[in-house]
Backbone:
């Protein structure tokens, strides 16, 4: 079995940004990068906030980082002991990902003796505005110690600074209130501490920090423990965020550190109870998988009923803190199985940002709802028309992610559809889901083209999941998903009498009979690419006419390792080499429509042509390999997906811009492979179907799932499959 | 008045390639670059043949250059006197463009005295296989002279060598027979000479040349004249091209040089009689214009009834010797007015290459006839998918000239339409024109798209005349030309009973009633962009949404002066800056459909946004300016068009590839501006309408035109307009 802990021995400057992601702690409201307490923005320290954004000048709009309430360092005999400047003799950090606790241990040999610094910290899962930290100083001599801690308002920003103004509170409870540039949001962070030994405390403000220094002289080998808390509230959370943040700290101090951490651990425990996945026979897989789920828990929006998850979770401002199709296609399933309430919040975010999607469609002369490729508050599309910089000319390149990746709206419908199918909870339709689906169908309907010489509809000029091929016609994935959207819209229209009065009132604004006819016609007559004589489905019109060069051959044509493979002239663009699963994704989602032979032929054809330039790719190959009864082939893809954050090596920098962070979609994808792939889990009406395809080394796979408002435990082991209803 | 001569004084090495074009002589069968007789391939000497092509390896297929039958140099007292190596003291060349005669005069001061070399040469307009040259040597001392002349088989090729084998004839009549690589064509060039003074003659073969040297010692100041001829035939011309080429020389020698040149001049004279344009008050304009017409005469295919004109005429292998829309849109009018038989040959070429156009359409999954963007023998499209090299990466860039510039087929229909309208000769329909038009309409019909939410047709994903904006939707020019094609096809169907039996037989294979309905529907319901609130027509969907940057601003963004302005990421691509007349071309061609105000507003809007990166652009602006009663504005554009070859400064090199040559489309465009613009010439039924708009300095404009099989002289002068029927 696994010990639910990851430990990093020693200190390596090169790993600062990687460990910042790997040792992240979070509670859905905020994510705290796994950086050391003495780090500032230059070492990518950040407390990243969910769902609140700001834009400065011509930079991208990005999520806010809060002033860092964990900021702390040690001064001994006048010498500042900060990493990475002063290396300790002994150093390790550890993440307890069962309980969301980060610990650190450092020992420095000073001129007069050894000093040891231990700390543990968490952001509370039971009270999302609260962060707690306990630290301990021990010296083997009479050290003159100053512990400096407080709140660092000099936050790391990619396109900042976002706080036009910083106000400081210098009372017993200290604080920083930042006011944002664009919308004047206030972000208040307050902090307080508790010491139970004689010491002298001073407060001062400098360099955008409010700091408290605690001075004392140590007895030999005596432990000096300090407990502290910080509270965060923003003006989006409540009327008076300063007061709330301050109260948060006062109450926590009153109840004490032990109380706070116990409640936090209890909450984690209750989460794991229904979400852990037991894998026997392969600890590495069990560890990577459950660690992936840890990350999903850290970013789940439980504190609100309408919020989604950013593509890099709460690990920073990368990818603008925006919500991509990752949520619906890769992340949603985990929450559907383990916390349907979170799943509903994710989908409610889409329903509540419908107006942004309608505006976007209108801006392109289209009808209905065209969801944002990079969705922020209100469905605003943060995606730029120029997403890539040409390495040769340093000019921004016109990309078409925003305007041509039309499959995004179908992902929203698919998400709502999965929610309905898995939870049986139709309230989501009554709360706006119904007309959201209709608006998405209207969007695709306005994209339909019919040639004068053909009797079917086509969709032209799109980008499918494979972003290396721009502006293609009849991308199979996109067309099938559009067809699905039409089908779902017809279903919703058929259900209309069962919806809430409010939703029925909204639906009465449409000519539903007319729409039903149109969508039925569209679903029946939309062109869907068919397998060729070799059983392989062309990804889009003319795909097989492209040069069939190997990935290595295509890679060898790069003149610069950083150049973009796609776009108009990229090395992959005019070849059959693709970035990520495309047809393979389609086959996974509609596998009932294909026979085994077709799935296998397409898996094999596209596998050798996929560069996997996206972390969303591997899990789709793994899933399809399982469906083709090839768990051996699936295993490496699964491990790649499950290890996206545990292993170093992901792409962290694009030129001078940090693009690293955690990979929630890969985490969610790994979960899907474990349950739906290896576990062979699927649902059919009232029935839970389990057709296992375990990797050779796995002796047991055990997990719990919510289905139709009931909780089940599935245990797959050498004796067979057990399905047990728990509630 | 003008003297019909252009003289170049002195020698300047930098002008070699420019003068090669400017002093070109030609007769439609071949073009002889205006290079000096001693030049070889390194100085771009070439005798370019019409309508015969060859391809070697991965290079482009390109037209053949014949072994150079004019090759000649002088050796005096053992010293080789060749330019550019040995500079003469006096040197000039001259082109008599009234008679198509190139002369040259050089004087060298040698160690023992001065030697003078005079030559004149022509390729016969009355006998297109014949070239004649007379040269004269004079010395002011007893020079030991060797005149070396013969045939140079070491020809200039861009993508050669094209002759796998060269055979030599070393008789009194010398010769070279080249056999081409791809199709084994034979090209035979024979040469013979006549001397009337004592001399010693020797023949030798080396360096792919067969050379005759004539040795003699000069009397002081005595003129030594040598007359010579060469004959060219290819295996495409006749069964036995070697025999024919040899006979050509023998007969010419028998009749003598004076006879040959007189017949040549008579032919030129008869051509000018009906084609010269008299401009009084502006000699510069008259010279530039008639010199332009000279070039059109030099490349007119009079020796066959089915051949077209290459975009760079017969000035070399540039642009693959291919036929572009230039012919129908810019060049055709001159021949319609002056030599309808040549005009018919141009259009017959298109009719006879219909099979190539049908194959091309089929290769793109389309119906009907998609004519070649760069048409060679049989309508083969020589255009590559990669036409531009990226200056930064040196990689070929995927361009869409071949697959998206669909307006080419409508140009063919427009050409046939103009032929019918101007000549009244419907035989062209009976000889294949009728079903050619129907096939072009079928092509556009297969391009038509209808959105599910609209009731009109659209054409997407094209390139209009402005090549800087690729893959646009509803390019106005393209859509209007497609509509025209549908209209013409309906007209042809209505006329079917008047056609030849053979053509009726072909037409019987179509369901004409069905096609008539379809084409009528298409013509009525194809979307045509309309003027916006400012009266300006968007060039394509979304054009006005592009950045409205000035041409200077866009130019200032170039990082390399040679980088391509268009393509996916060019400096112009995402701005409103366009390469060449696009909407303006449309307004010219359908000016009856627009009011003056709309024409003027569009002229002014697009004028400031046009880079004129094509020599086809200026004349369209000039024409529209005249239609807007602004001959002042038109004049500069007219002179730019008329001076394309007379002035140095055109783009001659793209990297290491020579792209220079003559500009027949600009020449034809200048002619259109003179007659249709300044002269205000148009036709309406039986009536010739003349509404002059002369530039201020022009006192008189006089020209002859053929219309409906009759010849007219139009004289516009201060007294008014005279129209006189001559035949």
Residues:
């Amino acid at each position: 079995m696994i010990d639910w802990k990851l430990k990093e021995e020693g200190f390596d400057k090169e790993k600062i940004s990687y460990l910042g992601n790997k040792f992240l702690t979070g509670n859905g409201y905020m994510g705290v990068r796994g950086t050391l307490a003495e780090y500032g923005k230059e070492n990518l320290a950040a407390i990243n906030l969910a769902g609140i954004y700001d834009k400065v000048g011509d930079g991208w709009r990005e999520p806010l980082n809060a002033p860092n309430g964990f900021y702390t360092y040690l001064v001994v005999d006048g010498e500042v002991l900060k990493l990475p400047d002063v290396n300790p003799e002994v150093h390790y950090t550890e993440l307890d990902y069962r309980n969301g606790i980060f610990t650190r241990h450092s020992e420095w040999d000073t001129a007069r003796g050894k000093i040891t610094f231990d700390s543990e910290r968490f952001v509370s899962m039971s009270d999302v505005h609260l962060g707690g930290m306990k630290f301990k100083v021990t010296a083997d001599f009479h050290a003159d110690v100053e512990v400096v801690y407080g709140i660092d308002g000099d936050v790391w920003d990619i396109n900042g600074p976002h706080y036009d103004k910083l106000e400081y509170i210098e009372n017993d409870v200290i604080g920083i209130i930042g006011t944002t540039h664009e919308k004047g949001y206030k972000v208040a962070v307050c902090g307080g501490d508790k010491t139970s030994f004689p010491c002298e405390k001073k407060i001062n403000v400098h360099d955008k920090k409010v700091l408290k220094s605690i001075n004392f002289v140590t007895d030999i080998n005596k432990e000096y423990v300090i407990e502290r808390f910080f509270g965060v509230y923003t003006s989006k959370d409540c009327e008076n965020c300063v007061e709330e943040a301050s109260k948060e700290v006062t109450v926590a101090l009153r109840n004490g550190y032990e109380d706070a951490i116990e409640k936090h651990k209890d909450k984690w425990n209750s989460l794991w109870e229904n979400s852990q996945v037991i894998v026997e026979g392969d600890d590495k897989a069990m560890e990577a998988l459950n660690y992936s789920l840890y990350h999903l828990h850290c970013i789940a929006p439980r504190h609100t009923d309408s919020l989604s998850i950013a593509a890099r979770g709460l690990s920073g401002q990368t990818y603008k803190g925006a919500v991509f199709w990752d949520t619906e296609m890769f992340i949603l399933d985990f929450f559907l199985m383990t916390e349907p309430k979170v799943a509903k919040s994710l989908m409610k975010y889409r329903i509540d940002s419908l107006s942004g999607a309608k505006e976007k469609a209108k801006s392109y002369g289209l009808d209905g709802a065209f969801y944002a490729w990079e969705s922020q508050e209100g469905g605003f599309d943060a995606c730029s028309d120029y997403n890539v910089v040409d390495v040769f000319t340093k000019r921004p390149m016109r990309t078409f992610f925003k305007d041509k990746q039309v499959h995004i709206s179908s992902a929203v419908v698919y998400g709502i559809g999965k929610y309905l199918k898995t939870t049986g909870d139709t309230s989501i339709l009554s709360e706006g889901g119904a007309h959201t689906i209709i608006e998405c169908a209207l969007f695709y309907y306005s994209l339909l083209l019919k040639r004068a010489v053909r009797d079917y509809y086509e969709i032209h000029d799109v980008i499918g999941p494979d972003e290396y091929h721009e502006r293609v016609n009849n991308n199979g994935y996109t067309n099938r998903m559009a067809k699905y959207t039409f089908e779902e819209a017809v279903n919703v229209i058929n259900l209309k009498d069962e919806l809430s009065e409010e939703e029925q009132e909204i639906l009465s604004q449409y000519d539903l009979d007319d729409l039903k006819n149109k969508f039925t016609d569209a679903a029946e007559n939309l062109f869907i690419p068919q397998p060729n004589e070799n059983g392989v489905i062309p990804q889009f019109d003319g795909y097989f006419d492209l040069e069939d060069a190997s990935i290595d051959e295509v890679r060898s044509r790069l003149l610069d390792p950083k150049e973009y493979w796609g776009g108009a002239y990229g090395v992959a663009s005019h070849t059959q080499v693709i970035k990520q699963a495309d047809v393979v994704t389609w086959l996974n989602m509609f596998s009932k429509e294909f026979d085994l032979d077709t799935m296998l032929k397409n898996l094999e054809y596209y596998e050798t042509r996929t560069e996997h330039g996206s972390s969303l790719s591997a899990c789709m190959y793994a899933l399809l390999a399982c469906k083709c009864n090839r768990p051996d082939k699936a295993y490496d893809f699964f491990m790649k997906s499950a290890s996206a954050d545990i292993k170093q090596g992901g792409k962290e920098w694009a030129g001078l811009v940090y693009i690293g962070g955690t990979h929630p979609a890969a985490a969610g994808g790994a979960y899907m492979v474990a349950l739906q792939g290896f576990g062979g889990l699927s649902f059919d009406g009232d029935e839970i179907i389990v057709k296992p395809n375990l990797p050779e080394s796995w002796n047991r796979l055990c997990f719990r799932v919510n289905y139709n408002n009931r909780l089940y435990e599935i245990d797959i082991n050498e004796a067979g499959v057990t399905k047990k209803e728990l509630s």
About this structure: Chain B has three domains: 5-273, 280-318+578-727, 353-529+540-550+559-573. The first helix of chain B runs from residue 16 to 22. The interface with chain A takes residues 367, 390, 392-393, 395, 397-398, 445-446, 448-453, 457, 460-461, 471, 518, 522, 559, 567-569, 573-574 of chain B (CB under 8 Å).
